[in-house]
Design a protein that fits this description.
single chain; alpha/beta; three-stranded antiparallel beta sheet; about 15% strand; binds pyridoxal-5'-phosphate
Length: about 375
Amino acid sequence: MSDVPIPFARPWVTDDDRAAVDRVLRGHILTHGPECTGFEADFAAFLGPDAHCVSVSSCMAALHLAYLSLGVGAGDEVVVPAQTHVATAHAVELVGATPVFIDADPATGNVTPEGVRAAIGPRTRAVSVVHYLGIPCDMPGIVAVAREVGAHVIEDCALSIGARWDGVHTGLFGDVGCFSFYPVKHLTSGEGGMFVTRDADLAARAARVRGFGIDRTHAERSAPGVYDVAMLGLNYRMSELQAALGRSQVGRAGEVLTRRAANFTAVAGALSDLDDVRLIDAVDPRASQSHYCAGLVLEGPLAPLRDRVAERINALGVGTSVYYPHPVPRLRWYRERYGDPGDRFPVASRLSDAGISLPVGPHLAPGDAERVGAVVRLAIGQSRP
Ligand SMILES: *Cc1c(COP(=O)(O)O)cnc(C)c1O
């Protein structure tokens, strides 16, 4: 067995990617250019028919734009998963709305239609979900519950590029899907994100808010400076350099997903007969997941030993992570605003406190996934009291 450490994640950047960025640098257009529109078109084609894409500077920006463009704000409540990246909740706070946190299903780490229904009240204006570790939520069920009360649906798809429910890509069920191209995610543009919607008017509105609220694009101006501003806006644009990299990466999405699936299967196989551990995975036959990582959960006598097991795994040369280290309501900003959650989110807390995220990315060389599995077995054996 090789002893070169295997990191949790490493961006996969090829000569083609480098050439694409270099071509932009040799030209004169660094923003407002054809790479962004090309990336938007290519990503829309990857997602499927009806997708309108607006490239942005991050997934956080896409989430913020979603609430700004839909007009969600002060006095409104938004249902938010407790087990997610803080960005999912921060976007709600930033527009002055109130997050109402809900717990997850233990098998998938996802919120459920029943969980959403129980959190809906007279002030609910939107429901947000995260496709946890790339496992799609039951979106038809969640959208149906939200529509009963006229609430919008925002999907945080930062980990779900390639994840589908009944063949339909995540991000195309609700009003807006928000994607991330941060370096450790499935595809990267360095930093970057995509605002996705099936509503062409909403896409146009989001594109204006993205660029200071200016009422026409460079291409739509009859002369430089001929524009007006009738709304507030931000600068959440992606640069041409980032778009060229992201666009080049989208061309390899199929290969990325195939390699991740094979690595996940190898890691799962190596751990299948171990006691007191389980892997988070899709359980519904309609769900096909995108294998962001192998989400191991320690149970029974192993659960309190998570830090020790993770340290052993790292010492044996395999990088790990935790998705996510705390349920959002346990983070200080949220505790100070809404009080200590205590044990109100037992599943989210278990995923945070007893979970270990293992690498399955395309940076793994042949044999590495088997090595990850073997290292985890060994580390667990060494950690048992
Ligand atoms: C990584 C992540 C984000 C943040 O993405 P950025 O592109 O860095 O803003 C948001 N939501 C989830 C679920 C994430 O995992």
